[in-house]
Amino acid sequence: MPNMPAPFVATLPKDKVTKYDLIQAVRADIVGELEAIYLYDAHANAAADPVAKAVLADIRDEERVHVGELFTLLKYLDPKEAEHLADGETEVREVMESLGIATNDDAGAGGLTVGSLKD
Ligand SMILES: [Fe+2]
Predict the structure, then answer these.
(1) Where are the alpha helices (DSSP H) in the chain?
(2) Considering the domain boundaries, does residue 54 fall inside one?
(3) 66: CA distance to ligand 1 center in Å?
């Protein structure tokens, strides 16, 4: 588990968590999901048993869905965070463009993508 502080100092009555605390909790949840992906992926890759490999890979992919859900929730709760994430995406696309690498948006046109370079 990541070395992070508890998301809440005490058990709070329902609906008494501030929005800031909720946002911080979602960030901690994202860290937990990313760590889970890291571990399930390592375990799936290491497993010799095909059933274990498939089950662990399936669980890993479910955790990826959770990351997407949590990022979407974070962007809903904190629109400023959404702006920062969009800025980061734009910056990476600019680097890719400067290197002549098509972005995923261009993938439909048959261009190279980062994903296609891994295969
Ligand atoms: Fe999860």
Answers:
(1) 19-46, 50-77, 79-98, 114-118
(2) yes
(3) 5
**Residues 73 and 26 occupy one common structural domain:** yes
Query: What's the CA-to-centroid distance between 24 and ligand 1, angstroms?
Result: 17
∠ CA(18), CA(7), CA(37), 5° rounding? 125
Q: How far is the CA of 7 from the centre of ligand 1 (A)?
A: 17
CA of 21 to the centre of ligand 1 (A): 20
Model confidence over 52-82: pLDDT tens digits? 999 999 999 999 999 999 999 999 999 999 9
| Domain count along the chain | 2
Cα 77 from Cα 36, distance rounded (Å):
23
How many angstroms separate the alpha carbon of residue 73 from the centre of ligand 1?
A: 14
**Do residues 91 and 70 share a domain?**
no
Domain, as residue range, for 56: 17-77
